[in-house]
Amino acid sequence: MKHIITIGAVLFNIFLLIAIVTSVSWLLSPMSSQSAQTTFVVPKGSNFTAVGKLLEEQKFIRSRYAFRFIVWKEKLGSSLQAGSFKISPSQSPQEIALAFTKGTSDTWVTLLEGWRSEEVADELAKTLGDQFDKAQFLQLAKPREGYLFPDTYLIPQLVTPESMIHILQKNFDKKMTQEMLNEIARQGKTPEHIVILASLVEREARTPTAMKIVAGILEKRLQNGWPLQVDSTLQYIKGYDTKQKTWWPIPFADDKKLKSAYNTYVHVGLPPKPISNPSLAAITAVVYPEQTEFWYYISDLQGGMHYAITLQEHNANVEKYLR
Predict the structure, then answer these.
(1) Element (H or E) spanning 85, and its range?
(2) Which of 15, 67, 260, 286 has the most beta carbons within 10 angstroms of its beta carbon?
């Protein structure tokens, strides 16, 4: 009887081992025989644990845990690269994991809020290299000032200027929700009005709270026929300053006399076009401004905002914070 039990235990362990090996082999095998490749994006800052979850959810692998086992076994934990990769369910988890460590043909580029099209072109040329036609991009981008949405993008190395414009515009269209468009229409305004004003607000205020207050002040000035008197429009007119080495030089008193349709000290109303590419925060601030009793504002040298109801209060703020 003991002999029979021993044989039974041995057979059970053999069958159990076979079952485990078969299961592990199955989990580490390709998800399917479909060889069609799909672009899979490894987000910037992600790790293999998060990537394994995404792969499982998108049906590239059978198990995120088997994927993590492969990463541990092959010691790939610190080798993950962000970017886009061509993979297919016909690849094993090991092949997919290794693919994510061998680099990508795409490049991450960050375009900052409030940049004008020239700054966007400079950054793209610096990141993408000589193969990117900066002059052609700028020619296409300048008429679209305000709609080159600032964000972090994963860009193919050989992207064309036309494709780059499409990527930026598409992101802008996605950020401008139907709810916002409905609110703009309800106010009797146009999207163009919002974007132009947001491009000013972006350059004038730094935080979402300040943006809402400044947006309310500028909108109140427009409604009452006041000139906006926004310094950033003077900076836009002046363009690149070789001495200050910036597209946004400090304006001087004489600059308020510059002859340009963008001079909001001379002309009442909005500039003809946006002066920068605003963030979602600036656009939202203009769509939903904060109504206050203020008519004036200044930004001090540290970026702090100071508001005033009367011109006398405003001049006192200027003397206190800007002199």
Answers:
(1) strand 83-87
(2) 286
Q: The tokens 């709270």 sit on which residue?
A: 209
With contact defined as beta carbons under 8 Å apart, do 170 and 146 qualify? no
Binning pLDDT at 50, 70 and 90, where does residue 16 land? low
pLDDT in tens, 159-203: 899 999 999 999 999 999 999 999 999 999 999 999 999 999 999
Strands (DSSP E) found in 192-312: 296-299, 305-308
The whole-chain average pLDDT of the chain stands at 89
d(CA 181, CA 194): 10
- Which helix (H) or strand (E) element contains residue 223? helix 208-223
- Phi then psi for residue 32, to 5 deg, are -160, 180
> 238 — phi, psi (to 5°)?
-70, -30
